[in-house]
Amino acid sequence: MTEIIRPTLVIDKEQCLKNIERMATKAKEHNLKFRPHFKTHQSAVIGDWFRIYNVTAITVSSVMMAEYFASHGWDDITIAFPVNILEINNINRLTANIKLNILVENREAANVLAEKIKNNLGVFIKIDTGSNRTGISSSKTGTIDSIIKILNKNPKIRFRGFLAHSGHTYSAISTNEIFSRHFDALLKLATLKNRFKQDFPDIEVSLGDTPSCTICTNFSGVDEIRPGNFIFYDMMQFQLGVCDLNEIAIRVLSPVVAKHQSRNEIVIYGGAIHLSKEFLTNSAGKRYYGRIVKNINGKKTLLSDRNYVASLSQEHGILKVSQKNFQQFSIGDLVEIVPVHSCLTANLFRKYYTTDGMEISMINT
Amino acid sequence: MTEIIRPTLVIDKEQCLKNIERMATKAKEHNLKFRPHFKTHQSAVIGDWFRIYNVTAITVSSVMMAEYFASHGWDDITIAFPVNILEINNINRLTANIKLNILVENREAANVLAEKIKNNLGVFIKIDTGSNRTGISSSKTGTIDSIIKILNKNPKIRFRGFLAHSGHTYSAISTNEIFSRHFDALLKLATLKNRFKQDFPDIEVSLGDTPSCTICTNFSGVDEIRPGNFIFYDMMQFQLGVCDLNEIAIRVLSPVVAKHQSRNEIVIYGGAIHLSKEFLTNSAGKRYYGRIVKNINGKKTLLSDRNYVASLSQEHGILKVSQKNFQQFSIGDLVEIVPVHSCLTANLFRKYYTTDGMEISMINT
Q1: What would the mean pLDDT of B78-101 be, rounded to a whole number?
Q2: pLDDT over 60 at B1, yes or no
Q3: The whole model's pTM is what?
Q4: In Å, how far is A127's CA from the nearest CA of chain B?
Q5: Residue in B with minimal Cα distance to A315
Q6: Which of B105, B258, B311 is nearest residue A82 as measured by Cβ atoms?
Q7: What is the CATH code for B245-361?
Q8: What count of other Cβ atoms lies within 10 Å of the Cβ of residue A122?
């Protein structure tokens, strides 16, 4: 801790390993393939931690990330993003060396794949289970039929099944809502699977989001899960009721540079280029970009939600703290912040330090 | 354009040069020192474009950025951020080689400087002109006196004057409000300058924010301006009425990967890790993360504000477009997006391409 002089992203490796182990064990118990999403950490070193728990297949969110992890020995990768046809040459290069799956959700992209794919490629059809971001509604079986027909024109392409991301679990306001959205996704996907399994006996259903994979216990009809955020968790998962404070394995440490008692504000070196402008709303209806952990009587304690990162400019962060806590912060202290969304924060820092001081690089660093 | 296959940050060099020239000319006409803020572009190559207009002194927002630009030949740098006392050794190393100015706004930091600074260092006292982010209220002359007294203990430290950033011009709702906030800042700083100029005949006032430096014409009592964003401008400045579309020199190009006609949505490869989650609100009260430019009859045209980047996840962006425009977007097209806040977007991309295809690196790339 004494060597940190600038905003620094710190992860607790032991807790990361516990988080991985718990999810790997859960997948095994439910007879699910575990294909963790590596977009959260984007690091080959952290990727290796998953091998300890026998992970051999991974998910990424871009062709670039697939190239990076392929170059670090991962040879079974799903790019869980609607295929970008401008990257078709990169996809052909990747499939020369690894087992690759991609997503399709429209005829235009399917036509380009049918025409241009040169090596074995798995294709999942992206299903929208209700988050309304991407994918085909599960009721549109005509569209699905026509896409499969197009894909079948190219013998190198194998239709693998249906992939969904119940992203709307992130906007749930209670764990009950996560359960009900997850259950709804299960029903939709099971219906689809039943419809197609006669023609495609090996058809698979792949589902993945940290909230449902963490707290739900029914995965009926699902073959594979792809959670990613769970390795670190963050304030979003905590506020959803998905994880406890001690399961959050990530912090931003930021130096205090100024204090303004008249408005109970602490200024830190740590801004939008460190934490990201992703925000949540606290119980008083105020936006926040992170919350604060303090050592109180030797125990790491999350300060009440009246203590929070209230605003961010490029390099500055403004903490609002309660009057009683104000004197606990001194110029030159390092404040321990739990970020709102660990994926975006990690992407901004581009490197990690472990609590025991090891530096860990990411893609492009 | 044909080689772009992924989200790409493109700048128009000719427009950047025009934007620099205009600000440099304005500074000269108003007899102001021009010390542009380099946090916006963070690039040594782009920094060199300023030398064409005789810029020799710059502003940065961190010690790290000062180190980067010092290593690229800049020897007169102001770090416009409340000094982080944990970086005192880095500051001492920098001052061995360049003319450096830093900011102070409290006695604690002043004491550390008085004790530890080893080489010549300029210190500005940060004044809060109303944005309530950092700085000392201009009425607290007692605090200012006591800080100057502390600084004077160290003969290597020279008190240079007062520095302010009227950041509240960014939240103005009209150009009139920018004028009035700027004028208020001028009054506060002039009062301070008058009070201190007997004891410090060379005292300077440094002011800087792109809105007021672009549109205001009264800089009475100001010695130096430090705008940064103006080299690119962005939707925030456009919405404030500070710049025209043709003055915005920055775009994000993003491939279209899916279309959802039932909700008039276009899915692009381009998310929070490209555009940043900084948002504005359009005339219908909707949050947006960027707006869309189209070539219409050979002319670059900003689509109406019913066409916008409506949401972002890590890699996905969702455009809402009007029904009439929906068919103008095809899978595999590159969409031209004007980002909300060019500083944060540039920081995420970490490299630029010029419209004529030159790649430009930034700090840490």
Answers
A1: 98
A2: no
A3: 0.96
A4: 13
A5: B61
A6: B258
A7: 2.40.37.20
A8: 17
The residues of chain A that CATH labels 3.20.20.10 are: 13-232
Which residue is closest to A343 within chain B, CA to CA?
A: B314
A123, A63, A157: which is closest to B255 by C-alpha?
A: A63
Q: Is the pLDDT of residue A176 over 80?
A: yes
Q: Are A190 and A164 contacting, i.e. CB atoms less than 8 angstroms apart? A: no
Q: Which of B86, B112, B275 is most worth mutating to test chain A (most A CB atoms within 10 A of its CB)?
A: B86
B246-254 mean pLDDT: 98
Residues of chain A with CATH 2.40.37.20: 245-361
Q: Is A325 helix (H, G, I), strand (E, B) or coil?
A: helix
Bridge partner list, B218: none
B142, with CB counted inside 10 A (0-12, 13-18, 19+), is exposed
In angstroms, rounded to a whole number, what is the distance separating the alpha carbons of residues B67 and B80?
14
Please name the member of A87, A277, A313 whose beta carbon is closest to the beta carbon of B133: A313
Q: Do B82 and A348 touch (CB under 8 A)?
A: no
By C-alpha distance, the chain A residue nearest B289 is A277
- The tens digit of pLDDT for each residue in A276-306 reads 999 999 999 999 999 999 999 999 999 999 9
Taking CB atoms and an 8 Å cutoff, what residues of chain A touch B63? 6
Q: Contact B350/A364, CB-based, under 8 Å? A: yes
- What is the DSSP secondary-structure string of B99-143? EEEEEE-SHHHHHHHHHH--S-EEEEEEEESSS-SSSEETT-HHH
Q: Which tokens hold the place of A230? A: 């769970």
A13-232 has which fold?
A: TIM Barrel (3.20.20)
Q: What is the DSSP letter of B247?
A: G
Among A142-151, A307-316, B166-175, B185-194, the range scoring the smallest mean pLDDT is B166-175
Nearest CA in chain A to B62: A315
Report in angstroms the alpha-carbon separations of A23 from A61, A108, A133, B353. 20, 37, 26, 41
Q: Where exactly does CATH 3.20.20.10 map onto chain B?
A: 75-227
* B344·A273 Cβ contact <8 A: yes
Tell if the CB–CB gap between B331 and A267 is shorter than 8 Å: no
ipTM above 0.90, yes or no: yes
**Distance to chain B for A331, nearest Cα, Å:** 7
* CATH (one of 3.20.20.10, 3.30.950.10, 3.40.50.300, 3.40.50.880) for B75-227: 3.20.20.10
